Amino acid sequence: MRRIQQPGIGTPERIQSVECGGRAFSLRLPAGVPLLEAVRSGFAAEGFASGVVKLDGLKLAPFAYVMPALSKTPEHAAFYSETFRPKGEARIEVGAMTFGQRDGAPFFHAHALWVEGDGKRTGGHILPDETAIAETITVEAIGLDGAVFAAEPDSETHFKLFGPVVAAPGGAGQGRFFALRVKPNVDFCGALEAFCAERGIREAVIHGGVGSTIGARFVDGGVVENFATEVAITGGRVVRGADGFEAAIDVALVDYSGALAGGRLKRGDNPVLMTFELVLEAV
After folding, report:
1. CA–CA separation, 86 vs 255, rounded Å?
2. 263: left (phi over 0), alpha (psi -120 to 50) or beta
3. Separation CA 249–CA 232 (nearest Å)
4. Taking the mean position of all CA atoms in its chain, how far away is CA 230?
């Protein structure tokens, strides 16, 4: 399986997880409000401090983003591009957000593909501090009760990355949810299949899903060779069948050349590059 050597030392446990409650809700994002503040206030109104959001259809202006890039130093295995600030409105086609905390304040990690005001279609990593909502929209969200995604220094990648930590439950959630972070050089589908098997989960729905893979291999034969990507899950399930567990995960991505790709990930052939955050709901 493809592998990228990270600059630091990782932990033996390759999935960081917290079991918690959760609840789906409709998140209203009003025009003219900074995206981070709109998400924070919408989650707070429902009694949540963390969770995931589906960004499809969102229009943004002003808008700032970065793309994956090669690292200029050995401090990181890959890095970010310069910041892009396109003119006009950008309309997100597909995208996912992890909402949580960084340095004690609200923060998010979001990847998407979008169309810019001049018609250019591209994608990348949305910057929280320079992005606002251009048109009011209601999107799908999952709030977590008993877990929070918190950005912490990661000794393996040398980035500050979101990972789930235990939080005091507030009573706003229900059901059986798991906040997850999958770590580098682990097959993404295989990791989720093993996770469900170990916990007796017969079927799980994936919510959110923000991360990176080492290139990509799709079930239709499509291939992304460039190793540095920004990936958003567009839909996914893990189901136990007659031959064991099987993950069906659809994604959209941009690689460091700016090329876009998407489709269903091939099981056993898509290792994580830096990280992958998501929420699993046992159903």
Report:
1. 19
2. left
3. 10
4. 9
Q: Would you say 162 and 60 are in contact if contact means Cβ atoms under 8 Å apart?
A: no
Which residues pair with residue 68 across a beta bridge? 80
Which letter does DSSP use for residue 155 in this model? T
Longest dimension (CA), the chain: 52
Do β-strands 147-153 and 90-102 pair in parallel, antiparallel, or remain unpaired?
parallel
Examine residue 62 and say whether the peptide bond preceding it is cis (omega within 30 degrees of 0). Answer: yes
Tens digits of residue pLDDT in 151-207: 999 999 999 999 999 999 999 999 999 999 999 999 999 999 999 999 999 999 999
Q: Give the up-direction half-sphere exposure of residue 162: CA atoms within 13 A in the CB hemisphere.
A: 28
Bridge partners (DSSP) listed for residue 145? 21
Nearest to 96 by CA among 71, 113, 120, 74: 113
The pair phi, psi for residue 44, each rounded to 5°, is: -60, -40
pLDDT digits (tens, 9 = 90+) for 4-36: 999 999 999 999 999 999 999 999 999 999 999
Task: Kindly state the tokens that stand for 270.
Answer: 């898509």
Residue 195 one-letter amino acid: F
Evaluate whether 169 touches 186 at the Cβ level (below 8 Å). no
Structure tokens at 220: 């239709």
pTM: 0.97
- Contact present, 227 and 70 (Cβ < 8 Å): no
The pLDDT of residue 1: 87
Pairing of strands 223-224, 79-80: unpaired
**What is the torsional sign of CA 219, 222, 228, 229?**
negative
pLDDT at 3: 97
